[in-house]
Amino acid sequence: MTNMLLVLTGVTMISVALLAYVNELTKGPIAEANAKALSEAVKAVVPGFDNDPIAEKRVQELEGASYAIYPATKEGQYIGAAVEATSMGFGGELKVLVGFDAQGNILDYSVLQHAETPGLGSKSADWFKQGNAGDITGMNPGQGALTVSKDGGQVNAITASTITSRAFLAAINKAYAAFAAAGQAAPAAAAEAPAAAAEEETPSANE
C-alpha cells in the first residue's frame, strides 16, 4: 500500500510539472495569437486609422461592468473607436467588438466570442452586417436603443433566434453607452440596453 501511494504521488507530481511546463511554453504564443486576432478585429470595425488603438486602450467603468475602448485616429484626428461589450445569449456569454465613428454611428462589428447554437444563433456573426437582413451599420444607439422589430424596434431578428438577437443588440447598446460615457461620442444621450433583452423565451421560440 505504501509503495502504491508513493508511485501515485510521484506520477501526480510529474503530471503537474509537465502540465505547468506545457502551459508556460504555450502561454506566449497564445497571448500573441489573441493580440493579433484583436488587432485584426479592430482594423475591421474601425478602418483607416494610423495610430495604435490597442496601445491606447482605455477602460470605462459603467454600472458595475468594465468596457475596453480602443480609440482610433488618423493624422492626429479622432475618427472613432472600437468598444468591447458582452451580454448573455441563449447558450452563454456573447462578446462583440463594435466600431463607432466620431458621431457614434455604427461602422461595423465583430463577434469575438459566443456559445450560440451552430446554424441559428451563430448567424449573429454576419446577420447584422451591411447588406444583410438585420443590417445595423449606420445606426446610432445614441438616438434610441437598438431593439428587434418584434419588440417594436427597427432591427430584423435572426430567424428563430430572438433571444440571441436581443442579446446581441443589448451588447451593442452597452458598447455605445460606454463609448458615450467615456466622452468618445459627439453629445448624445447614452442608450440603455432594452429591458426586453432580459426576457426569457422557450427554446422552441428561439434556437
Order of helices and strands: HEEEEEHH
Strand residue content: 15-25%
Would you count the extended β strands for me?
5
Largest sheet: 5 strands, antiparallel
- Separation of termini? 53 Å
* Rg for CA atoms: 21 Å
Average pLDDT works out at: 86
- Runs in which pLDDT lies below 50 for 5 or more consecutive residues are 187-205
Count of runs of 4 or more consecutive helical residues: 3
Q: Specify the helix fraction band.
A: 25-40%
| Overall form | globular
Structural class label:
alpha+beta
Major sheet strand order? 1-2-3-4-5
How many domains make up the coordinates? Answer: 1
How would you describe what is shown here?
It is built from 3 helices and 5 strands, in the order αβββββαα. The chain has about 210 residues and is an alpha+beta fold. The chain has one domain (about 45-205). It has a 5-stranded antiparallel beta sheet with strand order 1-2-3-4-5, sandwiched between helices. β1 (about 60) and β2 (about 65-75) form a beta hairpin.
Quick rundown:
This protein is of the alpha+beta class and about 210 residues long. It has helices at about 1-45, 125, 160-180; strands at about 60, 65-75, 75-90, 95-100, 105-115.
Key descriptive features of the protein:
33% helix, five-stranded antiparallel sheet, 207 residues, alpha+beta, single chain, disordered C terminus
